Amino acid sequence: MKRMNYYLQVLTVIGINIILAVSLNLVSGFTGQLSLGHATFMGIGAYTATLLALKLHVPFIPSLIFGAAMAAFFGFIIGVPTLRLKGDYLAIATLGFGEIMKNILLNLKITGGPMGLRGIPKVTNIYIVAAAVVVVIFTLNRIMISRVGKSFIAIREDELAAEAMGINTTNYKILAFTIGAFYAGIAGGLFAFLFRYINPNNFGFMKSIEILCMVVLGGMGNTAGAILGAALLTVLPEFLRSVSPLISQYRMVFYGLLLVVMMIVRPQGLLSNTSFYFRRISVEKNAGKGGR
Amino acid sequence: MFKLSKTLILLIVMALTLLALAGCGQSQSSSSSGSSSSTSSSNSSEQPKGDDVIKIGTLGPLTGNTATYGISTKNGVEVAVDEINKAGGINGKQVKLFSEDTRGDQTEAANAVTKLIEQDKVIAIVGGVLSSETMTAGPIGNDAKVVMISSSSTASGIPDIGKYIFRNCLSDDVQATQLAEYAAKDLGLKKFAIIYTNNDYGLSLKNAFEKKAKEVAEVVDIETYNDGESDFRAQLTKIKGFGPDALYIAGYYTEAAKIAQQAQEQGLKAQILGADGFYSPKLVELGGKSVEGAIFTAGFFADDPSDSVQNFVKAYKEKYNSEPDMFAAQAYDAAKILLTAIKNANGEGGEALQAEMAKTKDFPGITGNTSFAENGDAVKDIIILKVENGKFTKLR
Known about the structure:
- The complex is a heterodimer of chains A (about 290) and B (about 400).
- With about 290 residues, chain A is mainly α.
- Chain A has helices at about 5-30, 40-55, 60-80, 85-105, 125-145, 145-155, 160-165, 170-195, 205-220, 225-245, 245-250, 250-265, 275-290, and strands spanning about 115-120, 195-200.
- Chain A has a two-stranded antiparallel sheet.
- In chain A, helix 1 (about 5-30) packs antiparallel against helix 8 (about 170-195) and helix 1 runs antiparallel to helix 10.
- Chain A starts with 5 loop residues before the first helix and ends with a helix.
- In chain B, helix 6 (about 200-215) links the parallel strand 7 and strand 8 (about 220-225).
- Chain B starts with a helix and ends with a strand.
- Chain B folds into 2 domains: about 25-170 and about 310-380, Rossmann fold; about 175-300, Rossmann fold (3-Layer(aba) Sandwich).
- The radius of gyration of chain B is 23 Å and the shape is elongated.
- In chain B, the strands form 3 sheets. A 7-stranded mixed β-sheet of chain B has the order 8-7-9-10-11-15-16, with helices on both faces. Chain B has a 6-stranded mixed β-sheet with strand order 1-3-2-4-5-6, sandwiched between helices. Chain B has a 3-stranded antiparallel β-sheet with strand order 12-13-14.
- Chain B has about 400 residues and is of the alpha/beta class.
- Chains A and B meet through helix 1, helix 10, helix 11 and helix 13 of A and helix 1, strand 1, helix 3, helix 4 and helix 6 of B.
């Protein structure tokens, strides 16, 4: 097995966090549905992929995809009743779902309970993660410039108006949720095959908040922002670790401070201006169609 | 799409730049000849070359809500390293310690252990502290042939990660098994009830205790709770219905003290039994009269009159102005075992060090004599303590 050096290790984690951030961005940033249970879908993907690989000896790629599909399935199941709720109510419902799943994982025999699952083969490396990031971002952008993506944005901008324009808002919200869960499931699978050990605490409320921080820091509703947010919040603790011993000791303070200062100085996030560059892309595309 | 790919490239470049910057810095390292705060901020180029010093690392949560364990562990290792450096180091070479924070997070543990191995080039690591950390960091160390000795990861399965992974602590299995045997044979208790916290620690203890207790006596009821809860009356009412002689609380002192109090309120007259999660002055502070007579297993007893224990307690107090706890003591022993093995291996890491570690036999530490089983798990005698007049006394 090849030894992975420190930078590659951090870069790999960045990649996984990018997938998580852009997938949450699809749900919360583009479609405007605040979800506080995103890590749960990551957990479902991780556990499904791991169990398939460990118990049934399914190869890596199929177990990864099946894990993601399972996460998407749960996203759908949860989305149907909860996405009729709005704003705070939806946030609470997703939060509750996260806690339920965590407790299920803690108490099932097959998931190893609080012991988690260990002895997962190490498959994930920087190439696989990079490929996954490219595929996720590419497909996400194809979705966002399609009619479906525009419906998502319409729902965020004004749900009533979207409904009036003939968009079935509930269906589209469920779709966004399901796609987001699918991507999170991929990230979960990659996570499990990178760290070779998972337990339910990895996929709890704090992880969901961490992902949300990445999205908010980068700028809601902006894929590039989500990528930047994920990269920054992954690198920052590692960077502070190596600056100086004094800073290293208080690095989590700096981490928190950055978030506070950001929200005061630039509440819309680093790269926000809502979704300016998607609008630009779509304008260009339309212009092209017009033959001009 | 062109705009997008440009942005993407820009972002990736930014991320790489940040990473490169991160590499220019230097890790938190203390030369361990002075106090822990006198850390240098020199560039990596100014670091002494690998030939002059022997580098070892510690890995554990120094921030976050499990920080106390990690800091105690780091302090314990620092005391051991100081001791050896004052005595002239290992074969004339000073020992340099690198301490990395994990925040109690698995991802950070993987990053930190990779940094210790790849950047700082340590030959051995004391850590991780939490079981979940060791589960993640262990395989990385094992693949890189870096000896790791955990002084507090008690979950079962840790030594099985690989042959480079050692452990110097009371494993949950061993302490629960020995206590069940002691309670049944020496104390003559017959009907056991168990209440455990639903995490890896509680579950490991419960499984081992239940298995042994069923062999030597009877287990009448098993209940569970979650850490942070404060009302255990429902579980205790149920337990009381079975009329047990003893209640084994597999959890930490905060909840244990409350459980003992509520058991007393409900008139549940059972001998309270516990594990090393009980070992804290807080147990008596919180539990008061209700924990009087409680019997539990521990890895270290600071009031032990022996010289080695008292010397350690004195050195620790001088340096940190606080009482050493079990984590510090076990880390101190783990570091001593490791440093002795490094000395025997002539400062070599890798296979030579692994072989020397495995040879460790009856090492006289402050937490008892330690040998390693074939899988790298510590084999040591277990200390059994009892609360008497609000103080801990040693039963065995």
